[in-house]
Amino acid sequence: MNLSFVFLQAAGGGDYSFLIMMVAIFAIMYFFMIRPQNKKQKEIANFRKNLEVGQEVITAGGIYGKIKEIEDSTVVLEVASGVKIKIDRNSIYANAAANQQTK
Q: Which of 28, 39, 71, 77 is the most buried (most CB within 10 A)?
């Protein structure tokens, strides 16, 4: 009985260390996981908004191509000479020219 009394007193003693620890864990998760991911998503959205005809891009599926036409929600890519595909604008992921320069 004496040992259980000590455990109950320690658990409900009004100590705010658990609350502080949980806030610290959430802050660490925010700054190391959530914030960088939101920043990356904003960069990709800005890139998709500023697409231009003639720009070389990479799709989310890994297809390299050159933009031939831009419509409201679709883009026509030329993946080889005379081979054009129509894809959703949101599936364009990166600039191919910038990606090749970094390698």
A: 77
Residue with tokens 């949980």: 22
**pLDDT for 86 beyond 90:** yes
pLDDT digits (tens, 9 = 90+) for 33-74: 999 999 999 999 999 899 999 999 999 999 999 999 999 889
Q: What is the DSSP string of the chain?
A: -HHHHHHHHHHTS---HHHHHHHHHHHHHIIIIIHHHHHHHHHHHHHHHT--TT-EEEETTS-EEEEEEE-SSEEEEEEETTEEEEEEGGGEEEEHHHHHH--
pLDDT value at residue 19: 86
Closest CA to 84 of 71, 62, 67: 67
